[in-house]
C-alpha cells in the first residue's frame, strides 16, 4: 500500500512519514512551497512549487492530480489550517471521509477525538482510501526512511484561487513551540494583557516558549492565534508544560496532555486541571509566578 503525507512543517513531515512507514510499503511526501524536506524520510517527494501570489491552499488541485496519478491507499495530514483545506478537498475528491485528530494508532485502528476533544472513538477507515489528520507526538517513536526521489509536479491552477485581501506579520516569540522542551501556557487567569509579562519572565528563566489557551487569542487578541494550544490549535508534546490560570477544559488539554510532565497553577483548588496534571499548585498567578521566577 502507498501512503501520501501532507504537511506544512518539516518536523511534522518527518514524523508523519515515519508513521506512514509503519503501515505502508511506499511513502510519498507532498512538499508544498519552500518547506524544508527532511532528509531520507520518504521513498518519493512530490514537490509543488507555488507560483507568485499563490498560497498553500491553492495547491489543492495540483495535489488532487498527483493523488489520481499515484492512487495512494492512505493519506496522513498534519492538522494545520492550510493542510486541512487541501486534505479536505482531496478527501471530497476521493469520496472518502477523514478521521480527524487521531491520537493513537493500533495497526489500522485509529483512536481519534470528537466533540472538540470531549469524546474518543476507535475506528477503521471506511472506503478504499484512509484519510487521517494526526497531531504531533503520535508517531514520535517511529523511524523515517527513504531515498527522497524528488519529482516536480506541474502546477494545476485552482478554479477559485485564494484572493489575498490583506496580510500582517505574525508576532513570533522566537521560540518554536513544537521544538521547545518547556512550554509555559497562559489562560484566562490572566486578567489583563500586561500580566502576560509574568509568564514572559518565567519563559525567559526557563528558556521556554509562551503559548496560551484559545480565549487569549480570539476575541481579546493578546497573543497570536498561532500559539494557542488545543484541539483546534497546536498539539504539542514538550518535556514540560506549565499551565498558568488554565481551567483544564478538554479542548485545551488534548493539546498538551502528551507533555512529559504537566504542571498547573490555578487559584481554584477545584479546577479540573488538577485532576489531569502531574504537579499542581493552588495559588494566584500574580504571586506564584514572580516567586517561581525569582526562585529559579
Ligand atoms: C469546538 C471547540 C474547540 C475548542 N478548541 C480549543 C482549543 O484548541 N484550545 C483551547 O484552549 N480552547 C479551546 N476551546 C475553548 C475551551 O472549551 C475553553 O473555553 C478554554 O480552553 C478555556 O480557557 P481557559 O482555561 O484559559 O479559561 P477558563 O476556563 O475561563 O479558566 C480560567 C482559569 O483561570 C483560573 N484563574 C483565574 N484567575 C486566576 C489567578 N489570578 N491565578 C490563578 N488562576 C486563576 C480560574 O480558576 C480558571 O480555572 C474550544 C471550544 C470548543 C467548543
UniProtKB/TrEMBL annotation:
Domain Electron transfer flavoprotein alpha/beta-subunit N-terminal: 3-168
Annotated cofactor note: Binds 1 FAD per dimer.
InterPro entries in the cross-refs: DHS-like_NAD/FAD-binding_dom, ETF_a/b_N, ETF_a/FixB, ETF_asu_C, Rossmann-like_a/b/a_fold
UniProt-recorded Gene Ontology molecular function terms: electron transfer activity; flavin adenine dinucleotide binding
GO biological process: one example: fatty acid beta-oxidation using acyl-CoA dehydrogenase
Similarity comment: Belongs to the ETF alpha-subunit/FixB family.
Protein name from the UniProt record: Electron transfer flavoprotein subunit alpha
Organism lineage: Bacteria, Bacillati, Actinomycetota, Coriobacteriia, Eggerthellales
Amino acid at each position: 500500500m502507498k501512503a501520501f503525507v501532507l504537511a506544512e512543517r518539516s518536523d511534522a513531515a518527518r514524523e508523519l512519514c515515519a508513521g506512514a512507514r509503519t503501515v505502508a510499503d511506499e511513502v510519498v511526501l507532498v512538499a508544498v512551497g519552500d518547506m524544508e524536506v527532511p532528509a531520507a524520510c520518504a521513498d518519493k517527494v512530490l514537490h509543488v512549487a507555488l507560483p507568485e501570489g499563490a498560497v498553500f491552499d491553492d495547491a489543492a488541485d495540483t495535489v488532487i492530480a498527483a493523488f489520481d496519478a499515484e492512487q495512494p491507499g492512505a493519506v496522513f495530514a498534519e492538522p494545520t489550517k492550510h493542510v486541512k483545506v487541501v486534505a479536505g478537498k482531496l478527501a471530497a475528491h476521493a469520496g472518502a471521509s477523514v478521521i480527524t485528530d487521531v491520537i493513537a494508532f493500533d495497526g489500522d485502528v485509529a483512536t481519534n477525538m470528537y466533540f472538540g476533544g470531549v469524546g474518543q472513538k476507535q475506528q477503521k477507515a471506511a472506503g478504499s482510501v484512509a484519510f487521517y489528520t494526526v497531531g504531533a507526538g503520535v508517531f514520535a517513536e517511529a523511524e523515517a526512511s527513504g531515498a527522497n526521489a524528488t519529482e516536480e509536479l506541474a502546477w494545476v491552477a485552482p478554479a477559485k484561487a485564494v484572493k489575498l485581501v490583506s496580510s500582517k506579520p505574525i508576532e513570533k516569540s522566537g521560540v518554536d513551540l513544537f521544538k521547545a522542551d518547556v512550554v509555559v501556557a497562559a489562560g484566562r487567569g490572566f486578567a489583563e494583557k500586561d500580566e502576560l509579562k509574568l509568564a514572559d519572565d518565567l519563559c525567559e528563566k526557563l528558556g521556554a516558549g509562551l503559548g496560551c489557551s484559545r480565549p487569549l487569542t480570539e476575541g481579546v487578541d493578546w497573543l497570536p492565534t498561532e500559539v494557542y494550544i488545543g484541539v483546534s490549535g497546536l498539539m504539542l508534546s514538550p518535556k514540560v508544560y506549565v499551565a498558568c490560570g488554565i481551567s483544564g477544559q478538554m479542548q485545551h488539554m488534548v493539546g498538551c496532555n502528551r507533555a512529559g510532565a504537566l504542571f498547573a497553577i490555578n487559584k481554584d483548588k477545584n479546577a479540573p486541571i488538577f485532576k489531569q496534571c502531574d504537579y499542581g499548585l493552588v495559588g494566584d498567578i500574580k504571586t506564584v509566578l514572580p516567586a517561581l521566577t525569582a526562585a529559579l
